[in-house]
Amino acid sequence: MITMVIGFICAMNLSYRIGKRVYPDFEWSVSTEEQRVYITFDDGPHPSITPWVLDLLREKNARATFFVVGSNAQEYPDVIQRIVDEGHSLGNHTQSHLKGWSVSTEDYLEDIRACEASI
After folding, report:
1. Can you give the pLDDT at residue 84?
2. N or C: which end of the chain has fewer CB within 10 A?
């Protein structure tokens, strides 16, 4: 487990360093006095994992943003409703989780619009 976590952290650091070189005009950090952590979850909702996560968030009095796949949102509307009812935010993670590099821009944008309609 420790090896996996260290590997993930190293990969994230490498991604961050590469990203800064590829997109030098992006804002990569902001100085602030606030101490906040932003929690996000992708690719859900899932019928058992997402409720488990919501239970943990409620226990810790924490909020998160759930970037949902539209087809999953349609399949599990009760989980989507719980996310909203408990004060979390929803984000658009496309309707069918298209790989953006392998489809046309118009097809990708249409998938985003379809997800928006789903959520």
Report:
1. 98
2. N
The secondary structure of 21-81, three-state, reads HHCCCCCCCCCCCCCCCCCEEEEECCCCHHHHHHHHHHHCCCCCEEEECHHHHHHCHHHHH
- Please report which confidence band the pLDDT of residue 62 belongs to, taking 50, 70 and 90 as the band edges: very high
Q: Phi first, then psi: give them for residue 89, nearest 5 degrees.
A: -105, 150
83: phi then psi, degrees, rounded to nearest 5: -55, -50
Q: How far apart are CA 81 and CA 67, in angstroms?
A: 14
- Residue identified by tokens 């998938």 is 111
77-85 helix and 49-59 helix, angle to the nearest 10 degrees: 10
Task: Indicate the pTM of the whole model.
Answer: 0.74
Residue listed under structure tokens 């539209």: 70
The residues, ordered by sequence, that sit 6+ positions from 111 with a Cβ below 8 Å of its Cβ are 70, 94, 95, 96, 98, 103
